[in-house]
Specification:
single chain, mainly alpha, 4 domains, two-stranded antiparallel ribbon
Length: 302
């Protein structure tokens, strides 16, 4: 590695000083572009915020402004935490039929519905009434798209993508990339990689970047980079039948906060994380919403 690469792949521990007004402005932008019945913390963070690259985590909002309702009130944005409870199957079916009628079979995918400009309900509202997206499409009498397996990136594919994004970021502002830089790069390029892929494969994103920099500087071997945080146990897949059984027993609600699938995206969570030896047996599984699951992840990473 030459002297210039030493500068490019330098790694510094960044400390971001946050002004609460930044959060309030983000919430105001969210309120201005989102109808009242759709305003939820889930939608703000995982849908609108991700799409617009303009969001703060639930933990950050709670730290500076309290719960989501308090934060929305401080931002002067109308918020009805019970609005999602008025979502009915009739409303879901009507909107889905409208979307499905306007799209061809190959485009009838959940991601297309999520990004559909005519969507008024939460993108996961259908999960309260259907086992899966494909079940919803079929039961409403429409042809569903064929289900294809995603292509798994190799370790080398990921490393090459990380290097491309790192060099791209350095070319913009002479610094290491952040998670936001990865998101921006992926919006305009097709050869990137998501931070979720990196975290799932190698552990905490920021720690991986630090090890990546050390590897590019020749201070650690590639083997150490790739194996430092790989899970010691193999994650066993959770069958569709077990997933549905757990959701049904939980009445399609988060075990922690009680939120319904009509408002939030529900996850099947390992009570004892796989990385700490937890299994995928029913006794070690629970239903959590994305926000509560994210909070648990933060606790285990501390």
């Amino acid at each position: 590695m030459n002297e210039k690469d030493d500068d490019i792949f330098a790694f510094t521990e960044e400390i971001r000083l946050l002004n609460p007004s930044d959060i309030l402005e983000s919430l105001r932008r969210y309120g201005a572009s989102t109808p009242l019945e759709k305003r939820t913390q889930q939608d703000y963070y995982f849908d609108w915020g991700k799409k617009h690259n303009d969001r703060f985590t639930p933990n950050t909002i709670k730290k500076y402004l309290g719960d989501f309702a308090s934060a929305m009130a401080a931002a002067g944005v109308d918020y009805d935490p019970k609005a999602w409870q008025r979502i009915t199957k009739e409303k879901v079916d009507t909107e889905l039929k409208k979307f499905l009628s306007a799209t061809s079979a190959r485009d009838r995918k959940a991601i297309r519905y999520k990004n559909w400009t005519g969507r008024k309900l939460g993108d996961r509202a259908y999960t309260q009434f259907y086992r899966s997206w494909y079940d919803a499409v079929n039961e409403l009498g429409f042809e569903a798209p064929s289900q294809t397996k995603s292509v798994k990136l190799s370790d080398d594919d990921i490393l090459k993508a990380v290097e491309r994004i790192w060099r791209w970021t350095y070319g913009k502002r002479q610094s290491q990339p952040s998670a936001r830089d990865f998101g921006e790069y992926n919006k305009i390029h097709t050869d990137g990689v998501s931070t979720a892929t990196i975290s799932n494969r190698f552990g905490t994103f920021s720690r991986f970047l630090k090890r990546f920099a050390l590897w590019k500087q020749g201070k650690i071997e590639k083997r150490e980079l790739l194996t430092a945080r790989k899970r010691e146990t193999t994650r066993q897949p959770i069958s569709t039948s077990l997933r549905f059984e757990l959701l049904k027993e939980a009445d399609h609600r988060c075990r922690s906060c009680g939120a319904s699938a009509a408002e939030v995206s529900l996850h099947i969570d390992h009570i004892l994380p796989v990385s700490k030896g937890g299994s995928s047996k029913k006794s070690n599984l629970q239903v959590l919403c994305a926000n509560c699951n994210l909070g648990r992840s933060d606790k285990y990473q501390e």
